[in-house]
Automatic annotation (TrEMBL):
BP term (GO), one: glutaminyl-tRNAGln biosynthesis via transamidation
The species this protein was found in: Bradyrhizobium macuxiense
Protein name from the UniProt record: Aspartyl/glutamyl-tRNA(Asn/Gln) amidotransferase subunit C
Cited Pfam families: GatC
EC number: 6.3.5.-
Coiled-coil residues: none
Length: 95
């Protein structure tokens, strides 16, 4: 894939970056070099390689998925003007 001058100007416009006509050829070369590198990555054999979360082997830390109320409902609603059973009471706004 190759990037032309029109595409460089469009990318700059979408990114809201002011690019002069003199800068377009340089940016075109930079973008083409990036795309060439990405194409090289697709040639790497990744058969049997597991995804990693770190460069050192480690197991992801997981917490149990337990539903709770945080056990601080009284503290949360303490400053509310009006509450009922640890819930905020708000005035009706829709008739």
């Amino acid at each position: 894939m190759s990037v032309d001058a029109t595409t460089v100007r469009r990318i700059a416009h979408l990114a809201r970056i002011a690019v002069s006509d003199a800068e377009v050829p340089h940016l075109q070369g930079e973008l083409n070099a990036m795309l060439a590198f990405v194409e090289q990555l697709s040639e790497v054999n990744i058969e049997g390689v597991e995804p990693m979360t770190s460069v050192t082997p480690m197991e992801m830390k997981k917490r149990t998925d337990a539903v709770n109320d945080g056990e601080i409902a009284e503290i949360i609603v303490r400053n509310a003007p009006d509450t009922v059973n640890d819930f905020f009471l708000v005035p009706k706004v829709v008739e």
